[in-house]
Amino acid sequence: MDKIDRHILEVLQKEARLSTAELAERIGLSPSPCARRLKRLEDEGYIENYQANVNKTKAGIAMSFFVEVSLNSHQEDSIATFEKALSDMDEVINGHVVSGSYDYLLEVVSPNLDGYERFTRKLHKLASVKDIHTHLSVRKVINKTTLPIFV
């Protein structure tokens, strides 16, 4: 990973729809070496996929919540069942195992409070869930869609 590779990643995070020729022009390479570098970054897993950032409001998402979840069992099969259930819940857009007073921190979206209530009912039905605490996001103050490149 050199300076040019980092530049490629920075540019693609902002404009993933660039053609290889356009990308090459932006970073100051000819198209063939740029294409080889791009392919290598994909093959080595630096670039996982290409996606569109969808406007939440236009998609009918009016509310975001951060949900702290504590489990009553930390057995491997119980954790696997819980995490599989989370992955099947469309409302959960991010989930993290965390240290501290709870086990998971989830980012959950909903069109309204009724939708969130339906989600919490599904969550409480999971046998391994001991307790949940919810924080309503009032306003997003930072919306970074790019990652810093530290390598």
Automatic annotation (TrEMBL):
Domain of life assignment: Bacteria
SUPFAM superfamilies in the cross-refs: Dimeric alpha+beta barrel, Winged helix' DNA-binding domain
Keywords for the protein's UniProt record, in alphabetical order: DNA-binding, Transcription, Transcription regulation
Keyword Transcription found: yes
Domain HTH asnC-type: 1-62
Record flagged with keyword RNA-binding: no
Protein name: AsnC family transcriptional regulator
